[in-house]
Design brief:
Blueprint lengths: L14 E2 L5 E8 L1 H10 L14 E3 L3 H8 L10 E8 H9 L1 E3 L7 H5 L2 E9 L5 E11 L1 H11 E6 L1 H12 L5 H6 L7 E2 L4 H6 L5
Parallel strand pairs: 5-6
Antiparallel strand pairs: 1-9, 2-4, 3-7, 4-8, 6-7
Length: about 200
Amino acid sequence: MANKASTITPYRQIRASYDDDTITVYQAYSEQIAVPAVKEQRLSASPAFSHTRMTWIKPSWCWMMYRAGYSYKDKGQARILALRIKHENFQKLLSQATVTHGQQLTASERENPVRVQWDPERSPSLKVLPYRSIQIGISGKLNKTWAEEWTESIEDMTETAQMLKKMVDEGMTGEDVLVARSLVPTERVYEIPDELRQTLQTEV
């Protein structure tokens, strides 16, 4: 997760790989779900995919590595997928979010179909960094739309994740080298409107 924007990273900030049209986010699934999803370019291609469970997306590649143990954590996270979503739809998700810190939610907050958590960012070697990374949970109300309409492309990144672990285990932890080898993506600051900054409580 190469962050070249500044020498001091704000405590809460969205960093991601993106182009003019889409932003890339990551999820980990079992082979049963991931293989059909990639083949048919639709997350819900497998009947094992659940529309009723909250599903979490992560713009940070390194946080995805931490969460899934580079794909080795368990069978349910054996495949790492990169999914592209249009900026307008990504920001629609954010606009419906409630930020959670383990607190009791109000009735109106519980009605929001999206949950946001700010968790410690990780380095390629999974070291805890002194700033936060956004995790976005999508509930049943939006899960079907996300899975069937909003994913522009789905790519299996499992081999890249496993090669990254191999390099880290061999002591190659320099981020510039890992980026050059396409094992860590370049992630830039993802700017959002002030209204969304307030919704996501980025200023703490």
